[in-house]
Every structure is written in structure tokens, then in C-alpha cells.
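Lecture notes, unit on protein representations.

Consider one protein chain, 93 amino acids long.
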Amino acid sequence: MKPYLLSAAVGLLVGVIYALFNVRSPAPPVIALVGLLGILAGEQIPPLVKRWLAPPSTETSWLHHQVKPHMFGELPRCADTAAPRPDPESRHG
């Protein structure tokens, strides 16, 4: 917002200077400025339409907001009933 205010202030200052020297502004006519406004508005339409037409994401839990699911499906988890580990004390030679 600050750059816009600065731009408007400088433009106002230049307009006052032009008026003091009785110089006509080289600015384009209003019809050209309306066309530029149309171009700026038109640039915003394709991304907006793409967002509207995009299929809704399937979010099943809060986790999907932070982490995307793996491309091969759910990864295996460590089971509590895994095979017992050998006791390191029982290895004697």
C-alpha cells in the first residue's frame, strides 16, 4: 500500500508543477486508463476460474493439511507384536 500512496503523491506533485508552468500533461486519455484497468482485472480471471474448477481436495484429517499422503499409499508401521529381538547376552561364542 505504501508504494501506491507514494506513487499517487509524486503524481500529484508533478501535476502541480505542470499546472504552475502551464504545461499540458502527457498522460494518456481516460479511455486508455480504463483499458489498462480492464487488462489488470482480466489477468486475475484465469487463476480464479482454475481455482473454481479444480476438483476439491480430499482431506480426511488435520494431518493432510500439513503432510501429503505418500504416493504409494500408506506406509507400513512398526508393529507391537514384532518378532522378539535376540538377547545380546546370550551370544557367547
